[in-house]
Fold this protein.
Amino acid sequence: MSSKKIVTITRQYASGGREIGMKLAEKIGAEFFDKKLLEEAAKTSGIHQSHFEENDEKRTGSFLYLLSTTYGQNGVPFDDTLFFAQLNAIQKIASEKSCVIIGRCADYALRDFDHVAHILISAPIEWRIKRAVEVYGIDAKKAPDYVKRIDKQRIAYYNYYTDKRWGIPQNYHICLDSSALGIDGTVDLLKDFLDGFYA
Amino acid sequence: MSSKKIVTITRQYASGGREIGMKLAEKIGAEFFDKKLLEEAAKTSGIHQSHFEENDEKRTGSFLYLLSTTYGQNGVPFDDTLFFAQLNAIQKIASEKSCVIIGRCADYALRDFDHVAHILISAPIEWRIKRAVEVYGIDAKKAPDYVKRIDKQRIAYYNYYTDKRWGIPQNYHICLDSSALGIDGTVDLLKDFLDGFYA
């Protein structure tokens, strides 16, 4: 039994993963990290937060970008430096306190930590497009492409930086389609899951 | 709201999917179909049950086998005939009564049915190997290869007969690692999930 509760949430864009994570964190008394993780990474690394924000969960695969990549100390590309700074921040947070961390390859960053619950939130594309328009105010005509693009970006980022493939159910303790029970129903079920997981 | 409860369970070998399905069926008052599905398929098709048993969730990819495949009426290979007979039996059962169906591409067979809950049960390979030895009496030395082989057979069968890829979380409403809560804990959580799903 562990007194600390560490939860990672991998999510498809507009699946409600962020909102579910926020509500779940409150229910289990854990600190919630979504964009705030970038703040922590900036703090612990000394690199300005704007760099983390510009490169948040995306890679540019363009050849020109690769040519122009800034190499830092030891010849490490700058975006790799950002990734490893984030990884360190995630490990630091998880070793200090109960937390719910959204995205940012947190499941990979904490792969050698015990008692971490790994969750994936998905939902049918139509449901997510509707939610992108209603909740995030994305233009209805552009939403289908936008949703797919963000998904692709995140998957490419994850697959590049980890030695795993994004979204394989075996990588998670529980995967839920958030449209099945809705946001609050999903939160309640995940709370029950975590009660069992940390029993 | 639907009064009938139709549940499909896709499972990795020795993950406990069968036992979970059996207990869940009892809890929700649904009929349980694992091997019994083959009996139903034999009954509705008139083809002897032994053929379904010999070909249960596996294909032989061998070239010699393909050459020797028996072609039935309309030039349809015999193993395709068996698959479609099973598909018909699954659809017949689901249109008649509450049921929990294990494997046999039931999620695909019922893709156009409303109010069907699709579940995937997985577990880490070490946990499943241990369970294969303890529960199914598989020889401890042979178990690692055996578990992987059955998984591969089922995946190849599924991917061949459906237009989907096995084990993509987006194809299921909930995926659970049965080692996280154990068999009974998983059954309880799935019961809660179905209560919400069918509310």
Observations:
- Chain B touches chain A through 24 residues (CB under 8 Å).
- The first helix of chain B runs from residue 17 to 28.
- Residues 53 and 96 of chain B are 24 Å apart (CA to CA).
- Chain B has one domain: 6-197.
